[in-house]
Amino acid sequence: MKKFLAVAAVLVVTSVHAEELKFGDLNYFLKQGQFNVGGDAIMNNEPSRNGAVDNEVDGYLFETHAGYALNDSLNFTLGLNYLFDGTTKIGSGSSNTNDAGFQNPKFGANYRVLNQNDTGFNFDVGAVASLNLIDREVGSANKDGNSINPLLTNYSEPRNTLDLNGRLGKKWNEANEFYFTGGVAYHMDGSYKQLDGNRVHMDSSLDFKLAAFYQYRPVHEFMITLGIAGTRVGEMDGKDGSTKYTQTSHIDNQVVFNTKYLINESLIAKFIVTQDNRSNFDLKTNAGSSEYDKRHALQYGLGLDFIF
Fold first, then answer.
1. Which residues, in sequence order, are bridge partners of residue 216?
2. CB neighbourhood size of 99 (10 A)
3. Partner residues linked to 174 by β-bridges
4. What pLDDT is attached to residue 30?
5. How far apart are CA 126 and CA 107, in angstroms?
6. Which terminus has fewer CB within 10 Å in the chain: N or C?
7. pLDDT digits (tens, 9 = 90+) for 188-219
8. How far apart are CA 122 and CA 113, in angstroms?
9. How confident is the model at residue 95 (pLDDT cuts 50, 70, 90)?
10. Helix or strand run (H / E) with residue 3
């Protein structure tokens, strides 16, 4: 009986240790009073085609985030991104347009509803609001703007957006963990100005998102993350000057590969790669319609994450 109790005690201790969440884990949640700050420097490339015209968007994104835990179950986040040297090339004979500047800031909150040490799984709910605080302007051949044409990129949103999401995950031993996430993004009415033409008005629309991530941590200092994500971009009506248009719904998929190295107990360095495969969509007007196809994207870069 004593041997049985000893073995049971060892198993319990091992199980608790195996499920301990550490900085760098996918399922890690900030503890009360902790701060988290970080930044990623990313190279972005997005080719597409409209009819017989090839388009290409290039640029550098500097994405920053900050977080604070009010308690062990509730944290707040702030995200601010800056677009460097955004270049849009349309066709082979046209001039490039250039865009640079701060993008819409993001304010968020996350709440841990369930903890795996109590229920076997982690379950979080979150909300993120992206606010258009600066008038969005798409550059022309003669004048630089601060935002890339949203028809040609997934990383330029001129409207206010509210994103609601839920995440279910678990770290089941020292080396392996996963989480699934799903959500909905509501884009409110908004507009942007084309510096070589009209102001474009965009009606509200609704997107749905699903994603799954797995992380392998063979040693404490090194982590490999793999993920797949899909977004159903909802149909949207708009008006370009006096011309009304409809952008049809479509699905964009993304594959994520990240590696992380724990420099010390408070600092992580990251290598980031994402590859998008995006479906076609039509832009319909009273005069006819055009199809955007051959839509892809590649992002890669480096980042740092700091906790204190």
1. 176, 224
2. 25
3. none
4. 98
5. 11
6. N
7. 999 999 998 899 999 999 999 999 999 999 99
8. 8
9. confident
10. helix 2-18
Q: Which amino acid is at 141?
A: A
pLDDT of residue 6: 45
129-132's contacts with Cβ under 8 Å and 24+ in sequence apart are 129/160, 129/161, 129/162, 129/163, 130/104, 130/105, 130/106, 130/157, 130/160, 130/161, 130/163, 131/104, 131/105, 131/106, 131/107, 131/160, 132/104, 132/158, 132/159, 132/160, 132/190
Contact between 146 and 119 under an 8 Å Cβ cutoff? The reply is no
Element of type H or E holding 116: helix 116-119
Cβ neighbours of 85 (radius 10 Å): 10
| DSSP string across 58-97 | EEEEEEEEEEEEEETTEEEEEEEEEEEEEEEEETTTSPPE
The confidence score (pLDDT) of residue 183 equals: 98
Residue 154: pLDDT over 70: yes
User: What pLDDT, on a 0 to 100 scale, did the predictor assign at position 287?
Assistant: 87
State the DSSP code for 189: S
pLDDT score at 141: 86
Neighbouring residues of 296: CB distance < 8 A, sequence distance ≥ 6 = 46, 47, 48, 275, 276, 277, 278
Q: What angle do CA 158, 227, 63 make, to 5 degrees?
A: 40
Encoding tokens for residue 27? 């399922």
